[in-house]
Amino acid sequence: MKKINVFFHGNCFDGAVSAALFKVFYLQCLDAEGDFKFIPLAHMQEFSYEKEMFDADVNAVMDFRYPPVPWVDWWFDHHQTTFMTPRDRKHFESRSRKEHFFWNPKAPSNTGFQADTLMRFYNFKLDPQWNTVIEWADTIDSAGFESPEIPVELFDNAVAFAVLLEASNDPELQVKFIEDLANLGDFDAMAATTWWSNRLNTVRQKNWDTVEDIRRVMETEEGVSYVKITDRVNNGYNKFISYYLEPETDYSVAFLKYPDKLKISVGANPFIPEDRRGNFDIGTLCEKYGGGGHYNVGGIAVSLAEESKANEIVQEILFILRNFERDIHSMRTRDRIEELPEFID
Ligand SMILES: [Mn+2]
Hints:
Blueprint: E1 3-9, H1 13-29, E2 35-41, E3 58-62, E4 74-77, H2 86-93, E5 101-103, H3 110-122, H4 130-141, H5 149-153, H6 157-167, H7 171-184, H8 187-191, H9 194-217, E6 219-221, E7 224-233, H10 240-245, E8 251-257, E9 262-268, H11 282-288, E10 292-293, E11 297-302, H12 307-328
Parallel strand pairs: 1-2, 1-3, 3-4, 4-5, 7-8
Antiparallel strand pairs: 6-7, 8-9, 9-11, 10-11
The structure holds manganese (II) ion.
């Protein structure tokens, strides 16, 4: 029996769903007797594609950085930043199609891209129920939710699974998710089992606790919300809660403590049409303070020892964003004008 090792982006819904989809494909099209092992990978500075880890008969990598090595047999990814060096990119481009290496940085999810590719080139037939699975992967991995209720209220099982996978540090849970999804192809059927329903209930309860924590500390002024939780360590942060609590804000700023760093996160409200909010390049703003990001979302990490410096950065960012908002939207009717800070020349 052939040993097939499937490496996937760990703590990631899209990564885990891609792994399940690969198993379904492999059993159907290549080898109905394959012996599968699923191994989560994490993006860390020291990670490299050393041979020892990739010792099965077939080694597949999904939703993870490009492997410039001959001992990986299948690869799918959609991350823009997948190539560690320009040399890796050249290496990828010099491969032949027979090598099963596929990349599409425009795809909203790796799952959807992988499904399309396998159907197009390998005669893979996908059960119709998987269409729902793929739609969820596209929505979740690109954060393309229609409203903040969806990622905050966690009514849909797919979204609750995504939060559970992101927060879990148990590799067994990720593997069980992949095996169950490969068997059932249906999040609701999985969620109906006791094993999963207990865990999804816990995720939902914890999430409502977080909503209350954030409601208590959030300060909104000039269309910019601010959440500061630095008196204790946070385990992840649901950035949609700010927009859920204050749907009319244009920007959100969060200042949080993590086990290894302080983090300032800045985002533009994705539920407000862009022509209604002013255009502001958040990535460039964050770069000025040693961070980075994209046009609509960015972040700055500061070491735990430099809390007062981080505080100054947060105050500057809030000042800049709130001034920007005031200037751009001076005509907009406001129901919540707070006193502006006074400055002495
Ligand atoms: Mn992905």
